[in-house]
Write a structure and sequence with these properties.
The complex is a heterodimer. Chain A is mainly alpha-helical. By secondary structure, chain B is mostly helical. Chain B is 63% helix and 1% strand. Chain B has a two-stranded antiparallel ribbon. The chains are: A mainly alpha, B mainly alpha. At the A-B interface, helix 2, helix 3, helix 4, helix 5 and helix 6 of A face helix 1, helix 12 and helix 13 of B. Chain A: It comes from Rhynchospora tenuis. Chain A: Pfam families: Aph-1.
């Protein structure tokens, strides 16, 4: 609806991501590289999914089931890839530790590892926001706006910006939770992440129903808040445990 | 699996962790490349609604048959796809042939020690790029955004900026930030110019240049390799338009690394009506922090004298480098990356993001390959090929998928 609203939509979707970037990630060059590579990773997984689904698109029916299969397969694939991502991350951690030994600097702190997980998650979230929201925002910089039939009270761009915001938060912090869970071997954390992702994606299915977005958007934000809270608790617990074991030595 | 035993003690965290400074050099190259690409994308997207003024100016300015003919044909709508492809291939091939000949000429001149001639030529070509291309693109911007400025002011500003630019690029006493800024500006202007070519020609040109790059650096008869060996044997620097990723405030006793990347000779004469030249330097040795296989010294603080000593010992591996040992990336690489992204921007922003990530990945892969092989490698092929592949994949596969999902407000 003009440059101002276009920029506004971008900031709604990516505001927290930008502030995370500026305050945490921009200070350490290696985290920027991690962010870029995890964005590329997510893009490649998306291309694979798009390739797999190309033959069946565009889905002409307005039924629920083709879309739910789409969502289920996509989420399942991405969660499976996350384990692969974690393996790569472990390898990188080992290389960094070996490198640190070689130049006689301290090995990776716990906070470093969490920062790496955060950068990885932010890369995923950024990729989601860019490809699902930003790339479609170009008309928003022009003179008009656009409404979707199923959700005719909110402009399409605003809906996609809010959904992108929710997913940025979910992706970023579920990566922190997932890496901690795989490292510590705790089942609860490991199960939480795919679950949260799946629930969030299923919530967006509600948007298919006319007027569903009025219910779907708040639910998605609640889901994002839940993920944020869970990761906060996890990190708090981990850091205080680490501190107490340190001081008890 | 508890890894607390491998964690360092955060109480003594007053000493920095390796994460603080690792990858600094890579970021110092990634930032200007990204900035150049961003500026080209902004230029392309704001000027893409070309009015008659720009197309008439461009047809005035382009006096050579191949490109303007095909673009005029496109404007008149009389070109079929097959004709376009044919003219694109012919243009790209002729461009590569011209560049090869000119590179051999450059090798010859360098062999006969006509370095001054080369430097003067480079100065004139940068002046040309900054004043003519810069002026033309500023005129487009002024007419598009209806900026109120009179011709006299415009002339004075243009003259001043171009002359300062030429000095900034070629005098070593200039502040490095100005040098870097002007190099990025030259890259942006030239890249924008290239995006004005018709579509098939641009893609053919990109692929042809990356293949040429591959051949010219790796084949033993390739001109770039000859040039490098010449410069190596004389321990001289090639006069070139090269971006040097030095930090703006150099610290004494800074870590010194021998790391360079190659550039391209891009010289276009009457056929393309713009001139820019970037010269070649080899990739000597490099190491990327993350690869464990490297045995090259990673972070060992060399005093300045030690650095020079290191250079002379490694004569068989590479040329003497810039006095601060920073990474150097040739301007040709900047330009072709930005051309690819600019052309992607003419389709849609999704392709821009995908191509940007692909090019960054290609850059990273090139640096890794250098760390492993430790010999001269071209910087263009991997990035351009990845960029083209991702562009095609995005355009064919991804776009349909994402638009289908997003328009139904389904996201994951």
């Amino acid at each position: 609806m003009t440059v101002a609203s276009g920029v506004g939509y971008v900031l709604i979707a990516l505001g927290p991501a930008f502030s995370l970037f500026a305050s945490v990630i921009a200070k350490k060059p290696f985290l920027i590289l991690t962010l870029l590579s995890s964005t590329l990773f997510w893009l490649m997984s998306l291309i694979v999914l798009a390739g797999a689904w190309r033959a069946f698109l565009p889905v002409k029916s307005t039924e629920l089931w083709p879309y739910s299969i789409l969502i289920l397969t996509s989420v399942g694939f991405q969660e499976g890839i996350r384990i692969g991502f974690w393996r790569l991350f472990k390898k990188m951690e080992d290389m960094l530790n070996a490198f640190a030994d070689r130049v006689s600097k301290p090995r990776l702190f716990l906070t470093d590892k969490m920062l790496l997980a955060l950068a990885g998650g932010l890369g995923h979230g950024l990729a989601h926001a860019v490809f699902f929201c930003l790339s479609l925002l170009t008309p928003a910089f022009g003179p008009a706006t656009f409404y979707v039939d199923k959700c005719s009270n909110i402009p399409f761009f605003l809906i996609s910006a809010i959904i992108a915001l929710g997913f940025v938060i979910i992706h970023t912090f579920s990566m922190v939770i997932a890496f901690n869970g795989y490292t510590e071997g705790k089942r609860k954390d490991q199960i939480f992440v795919p679950f949260a992702h799946l629930i969030a994606a299923v919530i967006t299915l509600i948007n298919l129903v006319p007027g569903g977005c009025n219910v779907g958007l708040p639910l998605l934000c609640i889901m994002a808040g839940t993920t944020l809270y869970y990761s906060w608790q996890l990190v708090w617990r981990r850091l205080t445990e680490h501190q107490t074991t340190r001081s008890s030595d | 699996m508890d890894d607390r035993s491998t964690d360092s003690d955060p109480v003594t965290a007053s000493e920095s962790s390796i994460l603080d400074t690792l990858g600094e050099d890579v970021i110092r190259i990634v930032s200007p490349v990204s900035l150049c690409m961003l500026l080209v994308v902004l230029l392309v997207s704001s000027l893409s609604s070309t009015n008659d003024l720009s197309s008439s100016i461009s047809s005035l300015f382009l006096s050579s048959p191949p490109t303007s003919f095909s673009s005029l044909n496109l404007l008149l709508g009389s070109d079929s796809t097959w004709e376009e492809i044919k003219s694109a291939l012919i243009t790209a091939l002729s461009f590569v042939v011209v560049v090869t000949l000119l590179t051999f000429l450059l090798v010859l001149l360098f062999y006969f020690r006509c370095t001054n001639f080369l430097r003067i030529y480079m100065g004139i070509s940068s002046l040309f790029v900054l004043s003519f291309l810069g002026g033309f693109i500023s005129l487009l911007l002024i007419s598009h955004f209806k900026v109120p400025i009179d011709p006299l002011t415009f002339g004075i500003l243009l003259f001043n900026l171009s002359v300062v630019g030429v000095f900034a690029v070629f005098m070593s006493k200039f502040p490095i930030s100005m040098n870097q800024g002007y190099l990025v500006a030259i890259g942006v202007l030239t890249a924008y110019w290239f995006t004005m070519l018709p579509e098939w020609t641009t893609w053919a040109l990109l692929i042809a240049m990356s293949l040429y790059d591959l051949a010219a650096v790796l084949l033993p008869v390739g001109p770039l390799r000859l040039l490098v060996e010449l410069a190596m044997s004389r321990n001289e620097e090639i006069p070139a338009l090269v971006y040097e990723a030095r930090p703006v405030d150099p610290q004494p006793g800074d870590r010194v690394r021998v790391w360079r990347e190659r550039t391209d000779v891009v010289r276009i004469e009457a056929t393309e009506n713009s001139t820019n030249s970037a010269n070649v330097q080899t990739i000597q040795e490099t190491r990327l922090a993350v690869s464990e296989e490297i045995t090259a010294p990673l972070i060992e603080p060399f005093p300045q004298t030690g650095d020079r000593h290191l250079n002379t010992e490694e004569e068989d591996d590479g040329i003497g480098l810039g006095s601060s040992g920073a990474i150097k990336l040739g301007l040709g690489d900047f330009i072709f990356y930005s051309v690819l992204v600019g052309r992607a921007a003419m389709y849609d922003y999704m392709t821009v993001y995908a191509c940007y990530l692909a090019i960054m990945a290609g850059l990273g892969v090139t640096l890794l390959l250098l760390a492993v092989y430790r010999k001269a490698l071209p910087a263009l092929p991997v990035s351009i090929m990845l960029g083209v592949v991702f562009y095609l994949l995005t355009r064919v596969l991804l776009e349909v998928f994402v638009v289908q999902c997003s328009s139904n407000l389904l996201m994951f």
